[in-house]
Design the sequence.
């Protein structure tokens, strides 16, 4: 079954150095979407990609304008009866500041220690080129990919994919596919092929406890009048019980409990809790009773304070009862919690528990739904097999505690299984100085894509 | 018994207008101690006072230099066998900004509606002149006061009486007296002669809960790691029980419970809780169960949050677990709590209740002891009698929820009963624009002092 792939894989081996060179060339373009000063670079980056794709025998290529930065589209329609894969990626990158912390300039990608260093090398230009190179390998050795391939590479991911939904709507016909693959995430660890099958959602709140119309003298009023900062603390404290569960009524109603198989899969992962803690200087892994740390951060909802603001915060002392106290609060949500529903529950509860003398104002700032991949769909087994063949290791299902808004957008808009097949590493500094790409991963990533297209062609 | 006072009281009546003019003249000098630009005015103010005192037959007057602004001293030693009263006051005033809010210029005192309007008219030049005028009345009608009178009028009260302790130490012999009277506070309300017999102390803390070495992504870490803001809220919430009592072990050990007589005295006061709440826009009087509002703010200790500071406080959202969370906390203390002891108890408790994964750092910023007057001393009955005779109303014992640091300094340094006999009104804008002095109070204040000196001479 692997026999017919040999020339393709050989091609990938032969072109290994050139594939790096191609990536270096593209990464020299500082396609920073958050900066107006780089608008022309965004367009150069899109044109550069489109040109390369058109040289690979794409049946159609296009630079698609949005209200801001252009996306690139290409398709290789080989046979309408064959399955169609839509590849999503993005060509915009994070800003590179602070420049002084880079060991080599962010837009002059350099190879050191088996890694390519530079802005965008892994997030996400390198991962886009993994697919581009896989397509090239098929095209140069077999004339075409074994399935219909479509690519949409947007230019606004780092600024929240602000026009992606519109783009997917207005090009709905063109973007129809049987499966979607997104390569913009990281593997669980070195040498561990990983498919991300779950993301948490979010509901974010601004909470203000109003007690007085002005700061009051703590001598003349202290002990006799509501202190909104004490009240806010009491309210926040009451939002968790002793076991770490959230006390908002109805909060857990739609939470899916993990299956035994899901728990076993998570438990099988070589999670280094000490290293995870050390990455943010933490002292202890703590949280809801009855769950492991990975279960907590991937599959359990939270209610975290993101900020507190009240009264005197400067040096020294000011003897006041603050007029008001504020908190930023947010809930990470898990399947099948709905942010709008949770927002209503949280708001109602916070208002209900306002202590005497206090009025509570809750503003729901934004929300995002959690995501759970339809892992019962056969494409997940296919993807696992392809990924494992390339890396020579078992592919694991992982989740992500944060949200990736565009995944929900794509999943909702296409209605198709959305494979999150990422080739990054957890510590690759994707949004920080000294971003790097493991070149072995890049190479094996291309082979993973080759295997994936091949497996899908025979699905 | 009142017979021999008639000519003195008549003199006070006759000089009523001139006593206002004298005060206006003095109040024209902008003796703002907090501003270096007014250093010369401070000296002018001191010289002006010293001159007036020397014209009243003082046996000795002096301008006493401190490291900053001069104090004024005068004494009328009439008979070493007679009791000696030390009068404390201050001649410095608060800044007058914002000037635009004054209806007449702060340093051009004007009479309107039976009040004198201007900076310093009640705090504290008017109250100093109450005693000066009383002395004058005795001097002009009888040749001398009926007791030995000493006056110390400092120039640094509005900036914390920074050199008062040193001044009292270095002039300890000169300042020896049997009683001290301080006229720098307000009456409980219009027409209610009030002796302030208790002040709360304070212990002020800066508390930091450290959890991480940097802000962490709330998606990648939320639910699995200690959130210092949630932890701080839980800690603060736990510092009060359901009845509003403070849970720090040992906190109440030295708290004096009110006697039935003290409670009855407080309950007898015409306290307008609605007006008190309205003055800071409060909605409800709340606090420790089992005590009235006045009892709470005058006689019960507190633990109030004065400020909260953690994570994201700007517009919109930032999805972080903050690295740390801070609070300013302070306790108002009551007799016989000791700030140093309370500081140790609070610090120990806060460190002890640090949740897992958090380290708590407590800095004790400053403290001040509570004050309780020795009301069993006969001078309090004498003062009550004198005050009541002038105002024709029962004199009440009141307390003050805040601290007046110089009172403790004077009480500790002299070791004598310290009468807080104030002639201000609660709403006289002492530190705000449009400060005013009730001219009827000024007049009756002078008579109160006359009665007091007289009563003391026969004690």
Sequence:
């Amino acid at each position: 079954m692997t026999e017919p792939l040999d020339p393709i894989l050989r091609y990938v081996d032969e072109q290994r150095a050139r594939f790096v060179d191609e990536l270096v060339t593209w990464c020299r373009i500082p396609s920073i979407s958050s900066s107006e000063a780089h608008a022309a670079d965004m367009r150069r980056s899109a044109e550069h990609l489109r040109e390369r794709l058109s040289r690979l025998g794409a049946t159609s290529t296009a630079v698609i304008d949005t209200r801001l930065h252009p996306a690139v589209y290409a398709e290789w329609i080989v046979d309408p009866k064959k399955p169609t894969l839509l590849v999503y990626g993005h060509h915009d990158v994070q800003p590179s500041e602070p420049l002084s912390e880079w060991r080599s300039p962010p837009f002059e990608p350099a190879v050191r220690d088996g890694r390519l260093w530079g802005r965008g090398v892994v997030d996400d230009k390198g991962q886009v080129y993994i697919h581009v190179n896989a397509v090239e390998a098929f095209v140069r050795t077999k004339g075409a990919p074994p399935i219909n391939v479509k690519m949409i590479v947007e230019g606004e991911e780092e600024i929240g994919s602000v026009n992606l939904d519109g783009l997917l709507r207005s090009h709905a016909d063109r973007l129809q596919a049987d499966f979607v693959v997104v390569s913009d995430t990281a593997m669980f660890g070195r040498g561990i092929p990983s498919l991300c099958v779950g993301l948490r959602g979010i509901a974010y709140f601004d909470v203000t406890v109003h007690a007085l119309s002005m700061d009051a003298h703590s001598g003349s009023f202290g002990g006799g009048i509501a202190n909104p900062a004490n009240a806010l603390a009491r309210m926040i404290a009451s939002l968790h019980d002793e076991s770490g569960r959230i006390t908002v009524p109805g909060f857990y109603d739609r939470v899916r409990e993990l299956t035994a198989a899901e728990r076993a899969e998570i438990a099988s992962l070589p999670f280094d809790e000490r290293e995870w803690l050390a990455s943010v200087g933490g002292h202890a892994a703590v949280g809801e009773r009855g769950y492991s740390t990975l279960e907590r951060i991937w599959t359990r909802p939270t209610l975290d304070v993101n900020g507190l603001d009240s009264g005197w915060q400067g040096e020294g002392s000011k003897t006041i009862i603050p007029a008001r106290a504020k908190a930023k609060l947010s809930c990470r949500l898990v399947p099948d919690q709905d942010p709008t529903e949770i927002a209503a529950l949280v708001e109602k509860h916070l208002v209900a528990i306002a202590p005497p003398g206090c009025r509570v104002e809750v503003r729901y700032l934004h929300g995002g739904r959690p995501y759970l991949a339809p892992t019962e769909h056969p494409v997940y087994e296919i993807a696992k097999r392809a990924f494992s063949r390339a890396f020579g290791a078992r592919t694991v299902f992982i989740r992500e505690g944060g949200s990736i808004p565009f995944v929900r957008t794509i999943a909702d808009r296409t209605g198709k299984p959305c494979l999150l097949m990422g080739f990054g590493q957890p510590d690759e500094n994707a949004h920080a100085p000294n971003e790097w790409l493991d070149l072995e991963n890049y190479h094996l990533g291309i082979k993973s894509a080759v295997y994936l297209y091949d497996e899908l062609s025979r699905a």
Notes: Chain B has two domains: 3-198+370-457, 201-255+301-368. Chain B has 14 helices and 18 strands.
